[in-house]
Amino acid sequence: MLAPGMVYAHEHVPIDLSEVKKSEDCLLDAADLVIEEFKALYDKGVRNVISMSNNGMGRNTRYAKNVAEASGINIVQCTGYYQDIFLPIEVFRLSVNQLAENMIRDITVGIKGTRIKAGVIGEIATSPGKWTVGEEKVFDAAVIAHLETKCPISTHTSIGSLGHEQVHYFQRKMTDLSRIIIGHVDLTGDAAYVLEMLKSGVNVEFDTIGKNAYLPDAVRADMLKEIQDAGYIDQVVLSMDISRKSYLKANGGKGYAYLLDTFIPELKSRGVTENSIQKMMVDNPQRIFGE
Questions:
Q1: Strands 27-28 and 15-16
Q2: What is the mean pLDDT of the chain?
Q3: What is the rounded CA–CA span in Å between residue 60 and residue 151?
Q4: Where are the beta strands (DSSP E) in the chain?
Q5: Which of 48, 67, 112, 287 has a CA between 20 and 30 Å from the CA of residue 9?
Q6: Which domains does the chain have, with CATH numbers?
Q7: Secondary structure class of 116 (helix, strand, coil)
Q8: Measured between alpha carbons, how far is 282 from 116 in angstroms, rounded to an integer?
């Protein structure tokens, strides 16, 4: 369940990819700093953060619960498995149906013996330019759990690659496309590519806002204006995907509030309307995640 108000649709509370990436910066465990920033978000009207850290990504349900209680922000936790290189051994040892059962248990009973229920299946992933056997197994299990529970599915595309392939997969599997979110599509830098996905009925995330080393925010803003003008803004959600300690404001990063304080004004300057911003930050994620 979501609280009334704005939603950051793709963050990580917490995340640990440090072993694979061989960088302690990829262990985001700075609870005090995150709580401080979340309190500032709360003051700006943000009430919900979707945490996409799942099995193999350092998911820590009690940590996230403590951050939520200390900050006032409702944190929605997830179930599922990530990209091939981060997949835990159980993905390869268990059957698709057993993996699906694990996800369904997280959604309907609680995660790891707690009463904290997952509100999203994600972020399930494909690798750069390829879809591995392990990843396809995770997608197949996610679809079973989705069809059983109606829980939304949120995906990871690597720099936007395989976005169309993911959409075609979900179409073949007869999923509820209005509850599917294709992630990181902003990194394609190609509004036409994204619009082709939107025409299918899926939702997309512009969720790497502020990561200008990957793509300038000016390009993201222009893409969103084009999507708005084409009539598909009802299927877009926003976030920053903060996944490193160095992204936090106290550590010299842009911090979570950058989305509201800097990116939203840039959208307005390029002709994205208040109504569109309301849809992307409130109405659309409330529809996708809140039912």
A1: antiparallel
A2: 97
A3: 20
A4: 6-11, 15-16, 27-28, 46-51, 74-76, 78-79, 120-125, 153-156, 180-182, 203-206, 236-238
A5: 112
A6: 6-290 (3.20.20.140)
A7: coil
A8: 23
